Amino acid sequence: MTSTSFEHARDAIVAVGRWLDAKGWAPATSGNYSARLDDGSFAVTVSGRHKGRLTRDDVMRVDAGGASLDGKTPSAETALHLALYRAFPAVGAVLHSHSPSAVGFSRAVAGDGYRLAGHEMLKALPGVATHDTAVTLPIVENSQDMAIVEAAIAPRLLESTAIPAYLIRSHGLYGWGSDMAEAERVIEAIEWMIAAERAERSFR
Length: 204
Prior knowledge:
Strand order of the largest sheet: 3-2-1-4-8-7-6-5
Radius of gyration: 16 Å
Oligomer: single chain
Order of helices and strands: HEEEHEHEEHEEH
Number of strands: 8
């Protein structure tokens, strides 16, 4: 199990918010980020905060059921983060980005997944050692009810070929890793491949 202190998690979440905002992947108050803590609780972003202007006070703690431990209101999508931590004990951080490329791509392609093949960037994903392979990025429908989204994606994440990422249509990308650095790498690699696929389509 990968975990960290609340103090360290707050700094890491503030930093990742600024990084994602600088890339244009966290407009307005969109996105949410979390980390597994060494006391069994979880650090998550407070609801309604601009991610490029986060302070340490904009990161809070919740228990495994999503209940606030400090009186603040967590992100509305905290349940999706907690579902990943429950399913994968090795996961230490979860990130949710809202790039125009990812959202536009999810609206443009049909079906419940998209095949990413032949990209050198595939090697940024955990367990992938060659570009000469293919993975499927799952796509699930958006809902204001997080239980519906969780139920739709849960069985697909347990498939033997699953990758640590999925798209919510018209909404954005979720990616995770053993720690914050790996979660960042997954998000950046998937975002890059989505942008590359869109560029390739435009040249056809």
